[in-house]
């Protein structure tokens, strides 16, 4: 029952681990070098505001 909760991960994560993270519910993985703007844009586009 928590499908509406976006969970993001970031850091040094091996590429081979990303599909597993997605399978267990991680919505998005940001790797080193991801800009704060990229992260903020993803959140704005993928997380809906609560009423």
From TrEMBL:
SUPFAM superfamilies for the chain: Cobalamin (vitamin B12)-binding domain
A GO term for molecular function: cobalamin binding
Name by which UniProt lists this protein: B12-binding domain-containing protein
